[in-house]
Automatic annotation (TrEMBL):
Pfam families: Branch. This is Protein xylosyltransferase. The keyword Hydrolase does not apply. GO terms for cellular component: membrane. Pathway: Protein modification; protein glycosylation. The lineage of its organism: Eukaryota, Metazoa, Spiralia, Lophotrochozoa, Annelida. It is found in: Membrane. Belongs to the glycosyltransferase 14 family. The chain crosses the membrane at residues 36-55. GO terms for molecular function: acetylglucosaminyltransferase activity. Its main location: membrane. Keywords: Glycoprotein, Glycosyltransferase, Membrane, Signal-anchor, Transferase, Transmembrane, Transmembrane helix. It is a single-pass type II membrane protein.
Length: 498
């Protein structure tokens, strides 16, 4: 910019008497020097702000924890309590939605799922020639003007598909920021009228995204936006607050298990299979936790000092204030970030005093979302319902799964028998069509991650697979042996039931 101005200033002389090369260089140098000075000033300001930040008060904003105040949840008092009355005989006599997908007309998904190279190659060529279909926020706002029509054309289920499922409702939270089109497809894949879905729209999301999401939710009695929205930052307690916002609202309804999702996930099982698996869990939580792997200093420092969020840098910063000893004599466990928790555990998490103290203590640590639930789940003396009293580090009975508790929820990227066939983004595999044969036989409940614009036929085929399996219902047998061998299923005495 400065250079341009300087050059413009010499414009007329440029025409009359061309500037020598030497002059040009000095003009440029002046420009660079100005940039350098400007840059230094910015750096100085940032450094001062950062310093002030790290010296500032680090006490936990108590009012953020107000969700804990709902000590007793009275389902009856709830304004939008939803009453469903299902006519189960209806569901066996039709009500199967139709989900046309023109892109799949030319695709052989079963062959792709079997890993047949010809079919995979054809799909890759197809993806090079065609763009994925995408519903924009504006389209959602338009299409949801007539909800009946929207639900029908998008092919949502309108009846529970079995009594077993109707009697075992599930609750989901989805944290979102953008890409409503992919979230709507995830919702459609897991949507059943007896379940409950809480969408947390980030405060930073655009007004249009929020509006379109509201309209989408408005078409379903059991889908809603969380009554409170957080601005979510990586590594910051705001992730937990966002989950709490959803769990708080979800607890107004009747369900058995809670699963939190992000928009890039996709189910590997049907609702019927999820219900069968979670019934086997019988109140136990599926929350990974490890003590050993949380011991390196670079991880321990996350709880050794108080951390602050520096919003304008979008980062967490360590301060000079050491943290106190954690409350209630807890051992801190770290886990991967996928969970299935029983309703009793969710209630404990939201209302128990010890749980409140622990969340407060973690509030100014780094990445507390990776610790709070694993810690509550592996300190049996806290008496959190469904928590685990066995040794978290002990290997389970099936040698293949060498980390203790199942990662029943999230696919293990580094699994030695499979290399990512998609692409790696920040150490996570973004699945491609080549991953389909592997994905369709995984025991985990959900797979992370799909990008709807990368090798997008993988997503389309997964949709078709789960949809077909959902329709097939009982006609497909379900092998529960993997789940039965999970330590907390295999040995119920290790599960805390206060
Ligand atoms: C349920 O549907 C069946 C057939 O559609 C009908 O005969 C029956 O009366 C319905 N039951 C109720 C409680 O509505
Ligand atoms: C589920 O919640 C945990 C704890 O807040 C969080 O770390 C994790 O990122 C969430 N998972 C997803 C998929 O959003
Ligand atoms: C704290 O927990 C450890 C084991 O984790 C136990 O040995 C110790 O007695 C406990 N201390 C108190 C005060 O409860
Ligand atoms: C994940 O993959 C790693 C690397 O192969 C393996 O050691 C580990 O046991 C796997 N974890 C699970 C839960 O399968
Ligand atoms: C799903 O069912 C349709 C219709 O029967 C069939 O054409 C398609 O190949 C099936 N796809 C999968 C993945 O099973």
């Amino acid at each position: 910019m400065a250079t341009k101005v300087a050059e413009a200033g010499t414009g007329p002389s440029h025409i009359c008497s061309p500037i020598s090369g030497k002059d040009k260089r000095s003009v440029l140098r002046v420009g660079h020097r100005k940039k350098l000075v400007l840059f230094s000033i910015v750096c100085l300001v940032v450094a001062i702000k950062v310093l002030l930040f790290s010296l500032s008060d680090t006490s936990v904003p108590q009012e953020r924890l107000r969700y804990f105040q709902h000590r007793s949840i009275q389902p009856a008092e709830l304004e939008n309590a939803i009453q469903y009355s299902w006519n189960l005989s209806d569901s066996s006599s039709g009500h199967i939605p139709i989900r046309p997908n023109p892109n799949l007309d030319q695709m052989d998904c079963p062959a792709m799922l079997r890993g047949e190279e010809k079919a995979l190659q054809y799909s890759r060529e197809y993806m090079q020639r065609n763009e994925p279909t995408r519903i924009s926020n504006e389209d959602f706002i338009e299409q949801t003007k007539d909800c009946d029509d929207f639900r029908r054309t998008r092919g949502y289920f309108s009846q529970p598909l079995s009594k077993e499922e109707a009697d075992f409702p599930l609750a989901f939270s989805i944290l979102m920021y953008k890409d409503l089109h992919q979230i709507e497809r995830l919702l459609r894949a897991i949507y059943h009228p007896q379940n409950f879905y809480c969408l947390h729209v980030d405060l930073k999301a655009s007004e249009l995204t929020r509006q379109a999401t509201e309209r989408l939710a408005g078409c379903f009695p059991n889908v809603f936006l969380s009554s409170r929205s957080e601005s979510v930052f990586w590594g910051h307690i705001s992730i937990i607050y966002a989950e709490m916002a959803c769990i708080h609202d979800l607890l107004r309804h009747d369900w058995k298990y809670f699963i939190n999702l992000s928009g890039q996930m996709f189910p590997l099982h049907t609702n019927r299979e999820l219900v069968k698996i979670l019934q086997l869990y019988n109140g136990a939580n599926d929350i990974e936790g490890t003590f050993k792997r949380s011991q390196p200093l670079w991880l321990k420092v996350r709880q050794m000092f108080s951390w602050r969020l520096v919003e304008f840098l979008d980062t967490m910063l360590i301060t000079i204030f050491p943290k106190s000893i954690p409350p209630h004599n807890i051992t801190i466990y770290k886990g991967s970030n996928q969970v299935a928790m029983s309703r009793a555990f969710a209630e404990y998490f939201m209302t128990d005093q010890k749980s409140q103290d622990i969340v407060s203590w973690f509030a100014d640590t780094l990445a507390p979302d990776e610790y709070i639930w694993p810690t509550l789940n592996h300190n049996p003396h806290l008496l959190a319902p469904g928590s685990y009293s066995g040794d978290p580090e002990v290997k389970p009975f099936i040698a293949r799964v060498s980390i203790w508790l199942p990662l029943a929820l999230q696919v293990n990227w580094s699994w030695e028998h499979w290399d990512c066939q998609g692409k790696w983004v920040r150490e996570i595999c973004i699945f491609g069509v080549g991953d389909l044969p592997w994905l369709q036989q995984r025991p985990e409940l959900f797979a992370n991650k799909f990008h709807s614009n990368y090798e997008w036929l993988a997503y389309d085929c997964m949709e078709q697979l789960i949809f077909n399996r959902t329709i097939a219902g009982d006609k497909i047998s379900f092998d529960s042996s993997y789940y039965q061998s999970l330590p907390f299923v295999n040995d119920p005495t290790l599960v805390v039931r206060p």
